[in-house]
Amino acid sequence: MTSRVVRLKAIALIDQSVSALESGRDDGAVRGVSPAVDRRAFVKASASSLALAWLAACNSSGPRSAEKALAYATRKNESVEKWLLRHTTMDHGSPGAVVAGGRFPSYFISDVVPSYNEALSGPWTLEVSGMVRNPVKLTLPQLMALPRVEQRVNHFCVEGWNAVAQFAGVSMREIAKVVGAQPGASVVDFQSFDDGYHESWDIESTMHPQTMVVYAKDGVALTPAYGAPARLHSPIKLGYKNTKYLTKVVFMAERNGGYWSDKGYEWFGGT
After folding, report:
1. Contacts from 39-43 at CB under 8 Å and sequence distance 24+?
2. What is the distance between the alpha carbons of residues 191 and 248, in angstroms, rounded to a whole number?
3. Could you give the CA distance from residue 204 to residue 58 in angstroms, rounded to a whole number?
4. Inter-axis angle of helices 39-57 and 3-23, nearest 10
5. pLDDT in tens, 87-102
6. CB environment 85-95: b (16+ within 10 A), e (fewer)
7. Fewer CB under 10 Å: which end of the chain, C or N?
8. Residue 227 scores a pLDDT above 60
9. Residue 32's pLDDT is what?
10. How far is CA 127 from CA 2, 124, 209, in A?
11. Hey, which residues does 246 pair with through a beta bridge?
12. pLDDT at 30
């Protein structure tokens, strides 16, 4: 069998599996998957099986010949994950869990804790631009003057732990309304002053009611350790997708990756 025929057969298998999952049919591809199955475990399993569908069919030409098909499988995995993790529920923090407070881990990529320097850079602003009708640069008082949202939610780390915090800020839905996000915008990039850190999101996750630009945590203004003056947060995305030290929000037509996404972490990063 030629490599082209093998490749086409592998892609057909991937398409068949994805279509079955999306349609909810109880055929061979999804038989035995209980509604109560852990969604993250199932996503991981489906991602592996889709990749293995190609690897099992790969001929002796080696991994290089599989690159295009693996990229295709990755895109399909995202569509499955998007379907499985569709955002119809709200997170309110784990039952019985206490707010982590100072035990809430902090992270950044700079050599030292990033701290915005007004003397050097002028007053902090949050630029919201790209595919919008009314681009703006919001000062912190202007951001805080928008309708305030407070929520007690989980923060999920890709390393496996989670912590609960009380966040206050402005929903991304409200910010999108202020700038008039255009219908063609399908991705939003969140940029920071932490050594160029950024991560882009799908528009559906960005518009989830619990996705917000945060300026206070546990009743006090954000400190540098937790992303001051403002950060992105949503319980529907893994921690590395929640950009801290936020300076710019750009609505776009196509994704542009992200700091960890470009290093091999999953771009969708859903919880």
Report:
1. 39/84, 39/85, 40/271, 42/84, 43/77, 43/80, 43/81, 43/84, 43/85, 43/270
2. 5
3. 35
4. 160
5. 667 888 877 777 888 8
6. bebeeebebee
7. N
8. yes
9. 32
10. 52, 10, 21
11. 192
12. 30
Identify the DSSP state of 89.
S
User: Which carries the bigger pLDDT value, residue 223 or residue 43?
Assistant: 223
Let me know how long the chain is.
271
| Per-residue model confidence as pLDDT tens digits over 66-85 | 555 556 656 666 666 665 55
Matching residue, tokens 């631009």: 129
Give the whole-angstrom CA distance, residue 257 versus residue 12. 27
Q: What is the mean pLDDT of residues 194-198?
A: 97
Q: What is the pLDDT of residue 58?
A: 39
SS3 sequence of 27-84: CCCCCCCCCCCCHHHHHHHHHHHHHHHHHHHCCCCCHHHHHHHHHHHHHHHHHHHHHH
**DSSP one-letter string for 216-249:** EETTEEPPGGGTTT-EEE-TTB-GGGS--SEEEE
Q: Hunting for tokens 């069919």 — which residue is that?
A: 57
Structure tokens at 178: 């202020």
